[in-house]
Amino acid sequence: REHLYRKNYSKFQCQRCKRNFESRLALDSHAECHLACAPRARRPEDGFTFEIYEALHSKKKAFHGQTEEEK
């Protein structure tokens, strides 16, 4: 899972153009620009969304003998 977080998740991504930013400040500056960025559909190389990040992060580790409900 750590590989997924490092390589496929960007904490600061424009929801409109899918560009990644290093900080919240940089993303906010981009969002406040007078010229709006061009909307673009999400592609696999854009990484995954915050919702998917939360779902992956909240899953418990599986241990031998656990039922599906316990996982």
The topology string of helices and strands comes to HHH
What does the overall shape look like?
Answer: elongated
What share of the residues does DSSP label as strand, in percent? under 5%
The average pLDDT value, as a whole number, equals 77
The helix count comes to 3
Organism: Amylocarpus encephaloides
Keywords: Metal-binding, Zinc, Zinc-finger
InterPro entries: Znf_C2H2_type
Protein name: C2H2-type domain-containing protein
Structure description:
With 71 residues, the protein is mainly α. The chain has one domain. The longest helix is centred in the C-terminal third of the chain and has 9 residues.
Summarize, please.
It comes from Amylocarpus encephaloides. With 71 residues, the chain is mainly alpha-helical.
List keywords for this structure.
71 residues; mainly alpha
Task: Give the SSE map.
Elements: H1 2-8, H2 24-31, H3 50-58
